[in-house]
Design a protein that fits this description.
With 539 residues, the protein is of the alpha/beta class. It is built from 20 helices and 16 strands. Bound molecules: phosphoenolpyruvate (PEP) and magnesium ion. Magnesium ion binds next to helix 17.
Length: 539
């Protein structure tokens, strides 16, 4: 038995076989001896890539519909493009290079050309040509992305997991994950909490664990590889006990979130996808306090259209049966990257071109989303929330674009519902301007993950800084209190949707500050309810 330690993200036990995620960098040798042989290798790899894309197309048609699947058709067409093939052939024939070198170089050259075009559609093709070239290079070099489907449940072990990778995992089979890199405040850690699965970060992992039976012990911050029969029996009992405890919490369903002395607040849940709504309903959340809509973009190979987004928002609104659904507009950037946005590499992405900054400069992207949300508002109780706000000007500009969309839809005769408008308070600037901002919106939702990062000047992605990332820091708590006071002065309700909302050691503090809503991962809703119901604020 091997024991490796790490930092636990969620207290719990997971037992299953390990799937080691290899992210091999393709090894590209640039020269090759025989041009004819290299051309044949390219032809064979291309044929296999087309076969893979056809299989992906067939799967996507069934699972997501033809619109979503169309991207794989485009990829197949690109692979057959004469200019693309001519360039590869030329590099192999006249420069004596290997097939993989020729494909990689052609992919990069074409991507650069597409990216420099004015037409937005053509610009977006840069990511596609990179994608198909990587597929062919991986086939030629035997590199494996390791994200292939699996039949049985598994524990993922990986060097790191980016949000763009986690969206590719089959969540129904994911028991837990263990990574070497990653921080407790990263979106990958948030995913583990949202899914209620044990996860460890900062662990010295080994590829030799692949396929072996393991136990993640989230209580003791470790993973056991090939555990002894005794340990397996003990920890399996603990796992079953946890399930029973969770079942006990179910008795709190349908009960109000009210303290012993009568203070009642809303407890909502955070989601990233339609598939999370099941957990929200199962745990009896009063609404959705944060729909991280950027995950729709991360799931997609290209910009999701207005109609595609409308179908998703409508479904969520309908599934929630009239309960509040707060959709946060696109918060892409920083650690959440989708290739087709072609965002430039930045020195400080957390302080960079992201979220509302992209939306206010790319009205085409912003309007498609706003129109989709407004259209969905006719099917439930939908609210809109803007992220990363730092000024009143931004709120006014965002509201202006929203109003433009509303007028367009009215002119088109589309039925719309009432939509509350709110903003995330996740920058110190927003806290300082909270009174002015409160006059412009109906609600605030405090994003404690970023508010802590920006207040303490600590990169939430950097695991080395975890010991310094103190979300109980008095500066953060005072900012929360200040925001609540400023909001209430202007009839603006105030919630918390960052991870701190689920921290039951602070529930009493937040209630005493006057918080109106806590939006937490679905698995924490009943636990927060239990805490609220045990408090007596009159004492
Ligand atoms: C936050 O910053 O607290 C938040 C809820 O948003 P995200 O974690 O998606 O940045
Ligand atoms: Mg945030």
């Amino acid at each position: 038995m091997i024991v490796a330690t790490g930092k636990s993200i969620l207290k719990g036990i997971a037992i299953g076989k390990i799937k080691f995620l290899k992210k091999e960098q393709a090894k590209i040798s640039d020269t090759a001896g025989d041009a004819a042989a290299e051309l044949q290798r390219f032809e064979d790899a291309k044929a296999l890539a087309v076969e893979q894309l056809q299989a992906l197309y067939d799967k996507a048609v069934v699972e997501a519909g033809e619109d979503h699947a169309a991207i794989f058709e485009i990829h197949m067409m690109m692979l057959d493009d004469d200019d693309y093939i001519d360039s590869i052939t030329e590099i192999i024939n006249s420069q004596g290079k290997s097939a993989e070198y020729a494909v990689k170089t052609t992919g990069e050259n074409f991507a650069e050309t597409f990216a420099s075009m004015d037409d937005e559609y053509m610009k977006a093709r840069a990511a596609d040509v990179k994608d198909i070239s990587t597929r062919v290079v991986n086939i030629l070099t035997g590199a494996d992305t390791g994200l292939a489907d699996s039949d049985e449940p598994f524990i993922i072990v990986a060097e790191d997991l980016a949000p763009s990778e986690t969206v590719q995992l089959d969540k129904s089979k994911l028991l837990g994950f263990v990574t070497h890199l990653g921080s407790t405040n990263s979106h990958t850690a948030i995913l583990a909490r949202n899914m209620n699965i044990p996860a460890l970060i900062g662990t010295d992992i080994s590829e030799a664990w692949d396929g072996k039976l393991a136990i993640i012990d989230g209580y003791n911050d470790c993973i056991y590889i090939e555990p002894t029969a005794d340990l397996l029996e003990t920890l399996d009992k603990k796992r079953v006990y946890d399930l029973q405890q969770r079942a006990l919490l179910q008795e709190l369903k349908k009960k109000p979130n009210i303290t012993l002395d009568g203070t009642e607040i809303n407890v909502y849940a955070n989601i990233g996808n339609v598939s999370d709504v099941g957990m929200v309903l199962q745990n009896d959340a009063g609404g959705i306090g944060l729909f991280r809509s950027e995950f729709i973009y991360l799931h997609s190979e290209t910009f999701p259209t207005e109609d595609e987004q409308f179908a998703i928002y409508k479904r969520v609104a309908e599934m929630m049966g009239g309960k509040k659904v707060i959709i946060r507009t696109l918060d892409i950037g920083a650690d959440k990257q989708a290739d087709y946005f072609n965002l430039p590499k930045e020195e400080n992405p957390a302080l960079g071109y992201r979220a509302i900054r992209i939306c206010l400069t790319r009205h085409d992207i912003f309007k498609a989303q706003l129109r989709a949300i407004l259209r969905a508002s006719a099917y439930g109780t939908v609210s809109i929330m803007f992220p990363m706000i730092i000024s009143v000007r931004e709120v006014l500009d965002a509201k202006e674009v929203l109003e433009e969309c509303r007028q367009e839809l009215i002119a088109e005769g589309v039925k719309l519902g009432e939509v509350e408008i709110g903003i995330m308070i996740e920058t110190p600037a927003a806290v300082m301007l909270a009174e002015e901002l409160a006059a412009e919106v109906q609600f605030f939702s405090i994003g404690t993950n970023d508010l802590t990062q920006y207040t303490l000047a600590i990169d939430r992605q950097n695991p080395k800084l975890d010991p310094f990332y103190d979300s109980h820091h008095p500066a953060v708590l005072r900012m929360i209190e200040q925001t609540i006071k400023a909001g209430h002065k202007h009839d603006c309700w105030v919630g918390i949707c960052g991870e701190l909302g689920a921290d039951t050691s602070l529930t009493e503090t937040f209630l005493r500050m006057g918080i109106d809503e806590l939006s937490v991962n679905p698995g924490s809703v009943l636990n927060v309810r239990k805490t609220i119901r045990s408090l007596d604020l009159s004492k």
